[in-house]
Design a protein that fits this description.
Helix content is 29%, strand content 20%. The chain is of the alpha+beta class. The chain has a single domain, classed as 3-Layer(aba) Sandwich (Aminopeptidase), CATH 3.40.630.190. The strands form seven sheets. Strands 13-8-1-2-3-14-20 form a seven-stranded mixed beta sheet, sandwiched between helices. Strands 12-9-21-18 form a four-stranded mixed beta sheet. Helix 5 packs across helix 6. It is globular and about 80 Å long. 47% of the residues are buried.
């Protein structure tokens, strides 16, 4: 691994051991992880978890909607009594119902090359990172208790935090550490217990109980973007990065369809977006995630049986699930979240600021973390402060043609008297401070390269 991919070694002085308090990000631009360029193969796994997480969430919704549609749109049933040996109990079929209560699902991707197939099985790649690796992508997916909002929280690999004790593969316990990089949590647990160890750390940082977890595989991202027919992303500036694999060279701004290997390169780029670095890449991925969600919800994916099946099967084949994340549970979660609107789906980075002791590291923002924990624990919907777009994103300019041809939809006719009743009052949405950067799935944004 190069220096920018390697967690910092050694102990810090007592003065450096505690995170500095801050409520606002420093005005300077930190380019996390830009000390040296990584080989394309070495950085190939960094961003995959983001898209796989969205595909997994989408698959949850897809699975629920598909199952619900099959049951409710089939021909009426006819009376039937099970026939068999006398005295044998009739099998009962579990009803497809919505998941009850809040959902907290962790999705992790590591930088390991072990088991990633052709292109990553050579000696150089295996020497760079093999075995369990580091958890370089960490997302907590939170669906609130009344299933009216969803938050996808990205916890940066460079975040320096207290690491709680956790069980490891040897049957013992890895002791707690007062300070360490988040992406070392996986290795503290090992191949079998690493995911549990990451969950323990993320739970301590967010204040929620994590019931489900998944580890994503690298090859899934290419297949997932192909399964939905590509994702159209707005480019505010030309996109050039010779260090991705394949190299990116899109000379003009405007909409561009990413799929297959080019989509993988787009999600891995750091030098081509924002000010460069890992936080720029996270912001770029948020632009992509929002576009992907809009494609799935508005682009006909849910009404296309072929795309529906391909996305579902591809996503599920590309993750290693926790034992708690069973197929019936996925369907139940899907039924619960199928009606969440794009305005109520938000992607954002864990509230954090630059480490004053090291510009290539991040530390939690105490005020932002307090606000986030309070919102998650109380199951409030989450919104971001005005002007909180990530450094690679900028709002897209609405198309004159699309606005001219889009007429407001006619109000739906109530299907029952209950439909006309006033909706139950909702909790006021929690607004996070500007140290939590991101966007909602409804916001149409463009990715941009910015000058230093």
């Amino acid at each position: 691994m190069t220096n920018d991919d390697q967690p910092r070694r050694g102990r810090r002085s007592a003065q450096e051991s505690e995170p500095a308090a801050s409520s606002q990000p420093a005005p300077t631009v930190a380019r996390h992880g830009r000390l040296r360029r990584s080989r394309p193969a070495i950085v190939a796994l960094k961003a995959v978890g983001i898209v796989a997480a969205v595909a997994l969430v989408s698959t949850v919704s897809v699975a629920g909607i598909a199952a619900w549609s099959v049951v409710h749109e089939a021909q009426p049933s006819v009376p039937f009594t099970a026939i068999g040996p006398s005295g044998k109990a009739q099998h009962k079929t579990e009803q497809i119902t919505a998941y009850s209560g809040e959902v907290n699902m962790l999705v992790v991707a590591s930088d390991t090359r072990t088991g990633q197939g052709a292109g990553f099985d050579d000696a150089a790649n295996q020497a760079a990172s093999s075995g369990v690796g580091n958890n370089d992508t960490n997302l907590l997916i939170h669906i609130n208790e009344d299933h009216t909002s969803m938050a996808v929280i990205s916890l940066p690999r460079d975040l320096e935090v207290p690491l709680p004790a956790c069980k490891n593969d040897s049957g013992g316990t890895t002791p707690a550490s007062s300070l360490g990089m988040l992406n070392t949590s996986l290795g503290r647990g090992g191949v079998k217990m690493g995911l549990q160890c990451v969950a323990t750390t993320v739970a301590s940082l967010t204040g929620v109980q994590i019931d489900y977890a998944a580890m994503v595989k690298f090859d899934g991202v290419v297949k997932m973007t192909t399964a939905v027919g590509g994702v159209t992303v707005c480019l505010a500036t030309p996109l050039v990065d010779p260090n991705t694999d394949p190299p990116l060279n899109i000379p003009t701004a405007g909409p561009h369809v990413f799929k297959g290997k080019e989509a993988g390169a787009f999600l891995r780029t750091r030098e081509g977006v924002g000010f460069g670095g890992d936080t720029a890449r996270i912001s770029n991925q948020q632009v992509f995630m929002s576009a992907l969600m809009r494609k799935i919800v508005n682009g006909g994916v849910l009404s296309n049986p072929v795309q529906l099946y391909n996305l579902s099967s591809t996503a599920l084949k590309s993750v290693q699930k926790s034992s708690s994340l069973t197929a019936p549970t996925l369907v139940k979660i899907g039924v619960a979240v199928k009606s969440i609107g794009l305005d109520n789906i938000v992607f954002f980075q864990y509230p954090s600021v630059d480490d004053p002791a090291d510009a290539n590291r991040l530390i939690p923002d105490p005020a932002g973390v307090t606000a986030l924990k309070a919102a998650l624990v109380s199951n409030q919907a989450i919104t971001l402060a005005p002007g909180s777009l990530g450094q690679s994103a900028q709002l897209a300019t609405p198309s004159a043609s699309s606005s001219a041809t889009s007429a407001p939809a006619a109000p739906a006719t109530p299907k029952s008297s209950s439909a006309s009743k006033a909706p139950a009052p909702r909790k006021t949405a929690a607004v996070l401070p500007g140290t939590a950067t991101g966007q909602s799935a409804a916001q149409e944004t463009c990715t941009a390269k910015k000058a230093y």
